[in-house]
Specification:
452 residues; alpha/beta; eight-stranded mixed β-sheet; four-stranded antiparallel β-sheet; flat
Amino acid sequence: MTAPIMSAIEESQPGSPGAVRDQIRALTHQYFALTQVERHFRPGIDAVPVSGKVLDGEDVEHLVEASLDMWLTTGRFARRFERDFAKFFGARSSLLVNSGSSANLLALSSLTAPQFEDRQLLPGDEVITVAAGFPTTVNPIFQNGLIPVFLDITVPTYNIDVSRLEEAWSERTKAVMIAHTLGNPFNVAAVKAFCKKHNLWLIEDTCDALGATFDGKMCGTFGSMATASFYPAHHITMGEGGAVLINDSALHKTVESFRDWGRDCWCEPGQDNTCHKRFDWELGELPYGYDHKYTYSHIGYNLKVTDMQAAIGLSQLKKLPNFIATRRANFDYIKEHLKAIEDIYILPEATQCSNPSWFGFPIAVRPDAPFTRNQLVRYLDDRKIGTRLLFGGNLVRQPAYADRSFRVVGTLTQTDFVMNQVFWVGVYPGLSTVMLDYVIDSLNNAVKDLKS
């Protein structure tokens, strides 16, 4: 039984609210234990998921505890998670949102605020990114009227080709927004030096990379901001959820405003007059004393998370170091057992000076292999082994971007290679050694079976 996680002191006499809460907490663990049926994996019959959530009785307890509060919106669990999450990374602060995609939208949108003066992102300004990635790293650029500048990537790190950064720069370049692909850090040293030279914002998308480090420092702390996702497929989960990590003290209030309807007020939900001058402000062309809770300084959103989600995240956060270690071990295990067939598969490599927190194990089918990537993933699918492509492949070839304005540096040759040759299999902590062995055996057997 875990220690009580309530903030208020409650009586614990029999029949009191506190005693009943204690009973409920104990019963959640009992219920979870009773519903967990241990099944032995049956190769070819049971699925090998590419990703998934790993939950326990403590996660259920936290969810029920928050539900009993009946606060429903962002509350005490969210505030505690934001503090602990920032501490884990060594960031100045963090703000919870309802998804990793929302975190990306929020991070970039906040830089359109006029208080940033000559660094303010304005329609037509350019943001450097890569075309081999997930769409919601790029979509906020379009959604804010900005111009993406697409760079190619390198294989087999699957991260930005930093040799072309200077070629990508123009007088309109204001920011760089890129992800650490599948948990493998991009070359942070080169990207950060480029941003410093040209006074550019850097946003790190760490949605797939919680716990990855570069040169011994946690990814998510190199840029002005970073983003995280807590979708069930990711390193920890809230079901839906995400966060913005903030490393620049001048940004916190602006990001929070954009998250909370664009309002100027910074009171927590359920609180009033934190500034002690609620009816003494005079902003814009509003009359003196207009209620600060209904004064808006930005064109914002409502992207908050519920306290029930945050409660699960708080429980999951305790397990994150073990989750990261297991992902790394699973990655190493797969790679070691595929080395004998590197003439067929290009195996992934960590970026120099990095220690990835792997989200998946990417595999490239060599162009001269006796079968195609599509044949291989169908072969694995027939054996109930989950696979995923490397997200959008080449985003500029996706139908959503057909009539959009963007700039491309070079020919995106490696990005097209990813689109045609690359897929990935899972390394998440829910996979047993027996499952990993089945995946490895299938990848080895495919070389023989698909040749014939």
